[in-house]
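Hello support,

Our group uses your service weekly, and this is the first time we've seen a run hang past the timeout. The protein is Fe2OG dioxygenase domain-containing protein. I'm not sure whether the cause is the sequence or the server load. Input pasted verbatim:
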Amino acid sequence: MHDMESLPVPSVQAMVAATGGAHVPPRYLRPEVAADAVASEGEAAIPIIDFERLLLEEEAAAAAAASCRVESARLHAACQEWGFFQLINHGVPDDVIQGMKANIEAFFGLPAETKQQFAQERGQLEGYGQLFVVSEDQKLDWADILYLNTQPPEHRNTRFWPDKPDTLRSTLDAYSAAVKTVADRLLAIMSSNLGLPPEVVASRCSGGGMQSVRINYYPPCAEADKVVGFSPHSDADLLTLVLQVNQVQGLQVKRQDGTWVPVRPLDGAFVVNVGDILQIFTNGRYRSIEHRAVINAESARLSVAAFHSPNIHATIGPLLTVTDGGPPELHEALLLCQAGGQELLATDEARS
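Update from on-call engineer: The timeout came from a worker crash unrelated to the input. Re-ran successfully.
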């Protein structure tokens, strides 16, 4: 992964602090954004899925099992029709969620020179900065990020894990483990919904699979309609779980008609989306959807995305072929394999 480094660029947060954000440098100007159609309030919304109901099947009560089947069907439909949903009652302890939010806000509140202690180094994706800046004339996103490998623990490079604030490392450790448990259980339920054994996806993640996090800081911009916080993209992983850190919205999902639908995160919920590998695994039944982040004119937005991927030696190909009226069959067409494919994946996943 020696060729993955980005060219260094200024911190947008520091630039806004110095200038008040009134002037947008040309490299950030994206005039095409203003022309895009955006759905109005109440026009459309991504589905809401109740994780507690999905887990009720383990109980004996017939009513609970029926409620679980209804929720599983809603999850199945959300993955096919939207590729996105909000997950409520996910069971990650509130103190872990609130601790994560507080530590992220505190990190981005540190002096610029302190944050620079954790800056990306040549040949590294991990660290504080910006990803995939490959030319001096490339258009830039209006954001600063901290990107880290989090699971399994032996994949971590603690050189880039901030020790300021002093609770960030322990909080991220607890948060990453709890979120991975949720993702693993969701993937098992999705496998069952597709008519496959629940462990099929997990078997491609033998050894537990991989998780990385991208912590995003989107500064305010006086000309918010002329910049983009995160360029349109789909995620390269299996499943992404996003935590909205503060109350400022910005995530938008692209519908088939080209309209962008704003996501209004519920307090305490995760925004979950299907990634490219899950679309491949499901042979296109579940959809990896283009999305982006837009900027607020007055307030910064913070979020943390946790990406979940197969392990580095996994074979990536459809697990599913649908026969005429019959049950789905396992299918092993090889699309991405082992180190080469995973290196491309790692590059693209950090982008997602």
